[in-house]
Give the backbone structure.
Amino acid sequence: MSRIGKKPVELPSGVKVTITPGKIMIEGPKGKLDYDIPARFKVESKDNKIVVTRPSDLKQDKATHGLIRSLINNMVIGVTAGYKKDLEITGVGFKAQVQGKVLNLQLSYTHPINFNIPEGLTIETPKPNQIVIKGIDKRKVGEAAAEIRDFYRPEPYKGKGIKYSGEYVRRKAGKAVAGAGGGA
């Protein structure tokens, strides 16, 4: 039995839900999102709560039940509070700045990297070594953060690169100093 799927999604004030066959639309102060519901599942809105019911107790249905409920909950949080990811840039000469709809990154390559900001997201650079990604869609925010991080992942020797705020980078020792114990 899906414990997450059984829990109803609470609707805060100011959130409007429209349920049509096969689709749910959630509108709030920050914007609106929609989701295509799989054909066999039923979504209902009662007393400021959204309830998802599954058609059977098959293992796949149980997993999908919890997934649908989590996605709807993420949509409700997105249209009310929004989502935010912070990235930190470490390295000499590494920096980022927003120029219109493009994030410009200087990452010790011979050329600057231009990342086009996806529709529905805002990217800010409060400091040259800090990137803040905000949006209402949790998946888009996480995907954009992962794409930016992939331009130069943090390396374990000097710690240079782009990492999530609060991410721990396991450091390694460099080469051992020559002269101790070796010999011909």
Observations:
- Residues 105 and 113 are 5 Å apart (CA to CA).
- Residues 59-80 form the longest helix (22 residues).
- Helices lie at 3-6, 59-80, 138-150.
- Residues 83-164 form a domain with the Outer Surface Protein A; domain 3 fold (CATH 3.90.930.12).
